[in-house]
Every structure is written in structure tokens, then in C-alpha cells.
Amino acid sequence: MNHSAALLEQNAQLASQVADADPATPVPACPGWTLQQLVRHVGRGDRWAAAIVRTGEFTDPREVAGGKPGDDVDGWLRESPRTLLDAVAEVGPDVPVWTFLGPRPASWWIRRRLHESTVHGADAALARGAGVALPPEVAADGVTEWIELLAARPAGEDPGPLDAGTTMHLHATDDELGAAGEWMVATDDGRSLRWEHGHGKGSVAVRGAAADLLLAITRRIPADDPRLAVHGDAAVLGTWLARTPF
Questions:
Q1: How confident is the model at residue 153 (pLDDT cuts 50, 70, 90)?
Q2: Domain containing residue 147
Q3: 117 and 143 fall within a common domain
Q4: Measuring CA to CA, which residue among 183, 162, 159 is closest to residue 171?
Q5: What percent of the chain has pLDDT over 90?
Q6: Which domain of life is it from (predicted)?
Q7: Could you tell me if 95 and 20 lie in one domain?
Q8: Which residues contact 155 (CB under 8 A, 6 or more apart)?
Q9: Do 113 and 11 fall into the same domain?
Q10: What is the β-pairing status of strands 204-208 and 167-172?
Q11: Would you give the DSSP letter of residue 6?
């Protein structure tokens, strides 16, 4: 998929979600935040990523140029992802830059910021009591990216998202996704994860639309939400959610 185009589309959807909303509206998925704070977080995050790409090094988010919106909040928010896309085009998509997982190609930040916007756009919709509309391809890629992030984290002393010997199968019910809509996630030692696209029997299986699976594994909807079908040991899913705060 074209992550750059999807980033702009998701940003535009977020901007539309908040355009006529009260900035002081609480965001339940992000306790303590208002829509105003969510917008600043997303817009500043895109500009922060752009600064990292341009320098190749970590940048303090508080020192990012243009990190706060002026009077034109909508224009500032819509411009933010373009600063990142411009930065990647300037330095080259394959140039290694700093990320919180170690050096990655500059284009890595486009996909990361896409799914930051995807999930926080859903947060804004849920805060307003609106439905969450995500293209299945984008939502499925968000599920994959989230699993990849968790699998790439160095194993530490704390337990990983799954207990040793347990597996989780996620199955998106969207017809057009094919193999890209199924994930098998497992661990041998209870600390590091391994995963692959495909069908198989897991300790727990979770079925639902790709958008609902994304919302579930990022803790935006509860595990017992009626949009999900959970088969097998539901406690495995509960463990995953308890150990993977977003």
C-alpha cells in the first residue's frame, strides 16, 4: 500500500473529525487528554519525525520548530504530515535515521506516523460518539505494524505480551485481505515474540473486521466487544492487552 497517501488521507479524516468539535471534549481512550491535546500530539509528532529525518538523530519533541499550532489549527494539522513527507523526499527514503528501535530507513517514519494518525483518529471519533471508518487495507497494515513493533522490542526482564508456549491467532473477516488479514503470534520464552501471516490454531483466536481487530489490540475497544468473536482461552487475549499499553 502507499503509506504516504494513506497518511495524508488519515490526517485529513482526523482534521475533519475535530473541525466542528469542542476542543475541550475528553478523549476516553487517552485518559486526561482533550481533543485539543490529541490534535497537538499528532501534529507535533509528525513534525518531530520530520526533524529526526532531516538530522538523522533524536530530537527533543519540545524543541521542534512549529510544534504548536497558531490560530489556524486546521491548517497546521493538515500541513504536519507534509513536513514529514517533504523531509523523507529531501534526504532519501532509504537513508538510515534514528528511531526508538534503532536505525531504520527514513521511510519507516511515514508508516509509523500513519498508524499513529489511524489510531488517534479513531480516538477522536470515539470521543465524539461517531463510528470509526477505516479502510480494511489500512487497518490490517496497522495490526501488522503494531505486532512488528512489539516483536522488535528487545526482550527485557518484564514478561512479554504472551506467556511462554501460548499463541494468538487474529483473523480479519474482510474478504479482500486474504493472507494479509491473518496473523499467528507466538512466544517460546514468554519474552520475545515471533509472528507470521497465516492461518492456524492458537491458544486464542480472535475474529472480526480488520478495523475492529486494530482497535482491540490497541485497547480501544474491550475484548468482550460484540464486534469480536473470541474462541479458545480468552485469558491469553487478556494477558496480551494487559501487557501492551499503547
A1: confident
A2: 136-242
A3: no
A4: 183
A5: 91
A6: Bacteria
A7: yes
A8: 189, 191, 192
A9: yes
A10: parallel
A11: H
Beta carbons of 117 and 14 less than 8 angstroms apart: yes
Q: How confident is the model at residue 246 (pLDDT cuts 50, 70, 90)?
A: low
Collect all residues with Cβ–Cβ distance below 8 Å to 212 and sequence separation of at least 6: 221, 225, 227, 228
The amino acid at 75:
G
Cell numbers 506467556 correspond to what residue?
163
CA distances from 243 to 37, 150, 159, 210, 220 (A): 25, 10, 8, 21, 14
Burial of 165 (0-12, 13-18, 19+ CB in 10 A): exposed
Sole residue written with cell 538523522:
56
Question: What are the beta bridge partners of residue 208?
Answer: 172
Cα separation of 35 and 26, whole Å?
A: 6
Q: Where are the alpha helices (DSSP H) in 92-246?
A: 108-127, 136-152, 210-217, 234-242
Beta-sheet pairing, 182-186 with 229-232: unpaired
Cell of 76: 497546521
Task: Please check whether residue 23 is in contact with residue 69, taking contact to mean a CB–CB distance below 8 angstroms.
Answer: no
Q: What is the pLDDT of residues 189-241, one digit of tens each?
A: 988 899 999 999 999 999 999 999 999 999 999 999 999 999 999 999 999 99
- What is the per-residue pLDDT across 75-131, written as a single tens digit (0 to 9) for each? 999 999 999 999 999 999 999 999 999 999 999 999 999 999 999 999 999 999 998
Domain boundary among 107, 127, 147: 127
pTM of the model: 0.95
